[in-house]
Amino acid sequence: DVKVTQSSRYLVKRTGEKVFLECVQDMDHENMFWYRQDPGLGLRLIYFSYDVKMKEKGDIPEGYSVSREKKERFSLILESASTNQTSMYLCASSAGGPYNEQFFGPGTRLTVL
Amino acid sequence: ILNVEQSPQSLHVQEGDSTNFTCSFPSSNFYALHWYRWETAKSPEALFVMTLNGDEKKKGRISATLNTKEGYSYLYIKGSQPEDSATYLCAFLGNNNDMRFGAGTRLTVKP
Q1: Is B101 at the interface with chain A, CB within 8 A?
Q2: Among candidates B86, B81, B70, B59, which has minimal Cα distance to B23?
Q3: How many beta carbons lie within 10 A of that of residue A65, not counting itself?
Q4: Residue of B3, B43, B98 to mutate for A, most A C-beta atoms under 10 A
Q5: Is the preceding omega at residue B8 within 30 degrees of 0, hence cis?
Q6: Which long-range contacts (CB under 8 A, 24 or more apart) does B59-68 make?
Q7: In this predicted model, what pLDDT tens digit does every residue of B56-99 receive, in sequence order?
Q8: Hey, which residues does B14 pair with through a beta bridge?
Q9: What are the residues facing A75 on neighbouring strands?
């Protein structure tokens, strides 16, 4: 069974903290994505990666960075968390080309106080 | 900026009703359109990946059509059941690998 896991379902952090969100997939997928979901806005792409050590900015990369040292793991980093980064964060992966469906993790609901 | 719009935002139907909703997207630089179903407390799951103008896809009681020339896709659910209650997301993929999601249509099916 295809699986994408995220390190936490719920996370509460304080303004200014460095936050790591981890995503692991077990499908040997080349592509991995980080999204955030806010009410009324749908999923917005933060960063994506098509290969190990490779990263591309999505629509809203400001305030975030990513790391992909291994094929199966894609980390999202909030260097200095702010209250406007309170959101649901979803990781996804897909194989091969852009036609292919994405498989999503369960999401991490991050609250920044 | 690409706009992917879904309508309606939310929909309440009775069990047994058939329903449909729309995803509108730019008609230029089209590469693919994805439909996802997102149930509360679960991960989004892919329903369909559509690439060709005129494509029609079906999975059980759910089907989708695609018109890339005019930039829209319809999702149909025949004989809605309470377990169909979910948010249905469409995602447009452009030629430059740009992927944009709509805000979704939240469907509630009342028993």
Answers
A1: yes
A2: B70
A3: 13
A4: B43
A5: yes
A6: B64/B35, B66/B33, B68/B27, B68/B30, B68/B33
A7: 999 999 999 999 999 999 999 999 999 999 999 999 998 877 78
A8: B110
A9: A22, A67
